[in-house]
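Progress against Task 2.4 (sequence-to-structure conversion) is shown through the following example record, which the project officer requested during the mid-term review.
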Amino acid sequence: MDVWYASYGSNLMEERFLAYIHGGTVPGSDRPEIGCRNKTVPKKNERIDIPYPLYFSKERTKWGKGGVGFIGTDISDAEPTIGRMYLITEEQFVDVVSQENNGMDVGMDLAEIEKNGFVDIHDGWYNRIVFLGKKNGAPIFTFTSNKLMNSIMFTKPSAAYLSVISKGLMELGLSQEEVVEYFMDKKGIKGHFLQNSLRDYLI
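Structure tokens generated for the chain above:
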């Protein structure tokens, strides 16, 4: 079965996401990915606006010191997150979720997730699989943390990580100024930068 995987962090950049398919290391990351069992490239990819707010949290990742992206657990049409969704196989989606959770076994029932809206599958960082609807008959899934936003410590992301997201957003057609505007009010970024300093941070 084909599914859409909706990304909103570094996987917005197509080259970065393909490392999860083929394996290898992308610029800015210090850790190689093992890749999927099925190395077939996505059949399609396109923009999606995800009705959950984007925030940055955690302390140190494969991108160095700083937070990484998550979306909140409560729907917010006022704070949509720009995403890029890839049409891949169900097996590839499971493998991507595993790689995003440091190779953890992430067995899941996608039919159950679609029925319930979300399912928490383990205790790792990206432990909540969320159903976002359907496109052309294929279900759309993403993943995030199940922690409530009022219990989270927000953290400024590294320049390397934020630059990869920026490149992905520009691949979707945003200008650099639109990317800066998009980031400015996100939790983990808001209060850390003026527009000019954020622009310089992304270069």
